[in-house]
Design a protein that fits this description.
Helices cover 72% and strands 4% of the residues. The protein is globular, with a radius of gyration of 19 Å.
């Protein structure tokens, strides 16, 4: 039983990260109908920038939490600027182009960002300095660290804040109007270019936080880390219902639990033939099943079909 609870805890931590990244995918798709495959690389940039600053300050004598916040403070504007530049340079000129053009462009932007990161930070893995508290707490025989608790709580607060932003603010109303019908929203005085840019900026801010969480949780970061993470977050968005914010959150948590429980029990189920390093298989198996049996996702898409 303690193994099951431990895997559930690990799944909640992993799912919280997936949910934050998936929100970036689902927000952009909800407003533009575009899959921004470069979003995983924005997460990677956030992780690398934060880790660079944290490594520089690791011997400064400052408290670890303060150093982590400074690293996050450096990563946020870089990621937000990257997201804004991606939308302005790569996607806005193709807004009226056939759907295949921005999709190919998104893949190209992803490759460009990967190679730029490789030139800046190199090919090697970068270790996360041991600056954060390593206290452990026991829950029904399972262990959860203070960092894991912080990841779950911070992710939950950020997701709740995003829901309030979309549902209760003027910007949120403009975002929902743009998602419903951009031409009509523009006729009603909504600056859709500004709304779309802010959507990329907000999604990139969430990506910066997720990047720091990933590097702190696994204690490493590297230039290629955003590719698989981005694909899994996209799977989470599809699982919950891409275009639906609540669906992206649900899909992220479920995918994290499925992957963690699968990795924990796949050895027993296959008689030792497969090990926990096959955990990536579960994410893409889930993606195939969702696309075959329920393409709209578990919650379903709330974005109106555009003419």
């Amino acid at each position: 039983m303690d193994i099951f609870i431990q895997q559930v805890i690990n799944g909640l931590v992993l799912g919280s990260i997936y949910a934050l990244v998936a929100l970036g995918y689902t927000m952009v798709y909800g407003i533009m109908g575009l899959i921004n495959f470069a979003h995983g690389e924005v997460v990677m940039i956030g992780a690398m920038v934060a880790l660079t600053v944290i490594s520089m300050l690791s011997d400064s004598g400052l408290p670890g939490i303060v150093i982590a916040l400074i690293g996050l403070g450096a990563a946020l504007p870089v990621c937000m600027g990257t997201g804004f530049a991606i939308e302005r340079i790569a996607y806005r000129p193709l807004r009226r182009a056939p759907k295949l053009a921005p999709l190919i462009t998104a893949i190209g932007v992803s490759i460009v960002l990967q190679n730029l990161a490789m030139l800046i930070w190199g090919r090697n893995y970068h270790a996360f300095p041991p600056i954060l508290p390593t206290s452990e707490h026991e829950i029904f025989g399972a262990t959860i660290t203070g960092l894991q608790i912080a990841i779950i709580v911070i992710a939950a607060l950020m997701m709740a804040g995003l829901i309030l932003l979309v549902q209760r603010t003027k910007l949120g109303r403009a975002m929902r109007a743009t998602a419903e019908n951009p031409p009509i929203a523009q006729l009603m005085g909504v600056d859709i270019n500004r709304v779309i840019s802010l959507t990329f900026v907000i999604g990139s801010a969430l990506a910066a936080v997720a990047g720091l969480m990933v590097s702190a949780n696994y204690s490493i970061a590297h230039y290629y880390m955003g590719f698989i993470l981005g694909l899994k977050a996209f799977t989470a968005a599809v699982l919950g219902g891409i275009g639906n914010i609540a669906g992206a959150m649900l899909g992220g948590i479920l995918l994290g639990l499925i992957e963690s429980l699968g990795a924990g029990y796949i050895g027993d189920l296959t008689g030792g033939f497969l090990g926990s390093h096959y955990q990536d298989v579960f994410a893409f198996f889930v993606l195939i099943c969702v696309l075959v049996f329920r393409p709209s996702g578990l919650v379903g898409e709330k974005v109106a079909e555009r003419a």
